[in-house]
Specification:
Layout: H1 2-25, H2 36-49, H3 55-63, H4 72-86, H5 92-97
């Protein structure tokens, strides 16, 4: 009986968290008819996209669309870094700048010649 109560309480807490997360960005959305798995996906998408899209667009992203996670420049920088690593052409400075010890989580330094 305790396990059932604990499971129910956990689901209730998660549901409340997802509702709150959705209402922070989309306060007029009625979340009563949204399944908890969809709410979880929406909450994760809200964390990732930070309110960049309308609720309808976000729902489509969660349910069907594939949205690129990197812009053109970020993709080009990443590809250049991979190519340099594959060809063992990274300079000591680039390796130091991109090491996990000195890397700012949102910054990768690549020198494109």
């Amino acid at each position: 009986m305790k396990t059932i109560d604990l499971n129910y309480t956990t689901i209730r807490i998660l549901n409340s968290y997802y509702n709150e997360k959705i209402h922070q960005i989309y306060p007029t959305i009625n979340t009563e008819n949204i399944k908890i798995r969809e709410k979880e996906a929406l909450a994760k998408a809200i964390d990732y996209y930070a309110g960049r899209y309308s609720f309808d667009k976000l729902s489509r992203i969660v349910n069907e669309e594939c949205v690129p996670k990197f812009n053109y420049l970020e993709r080009q920088q990443g590809l250049a870094m991979i190519e340099k690593m594959d060809n063992e052409e990274m300079t000591n400075l680039e390796m130091k700048m991109n090491s996990t010890d000195s890397l700012d989580e949102n910054k990768v330094v690549i020198y494109i010649h």
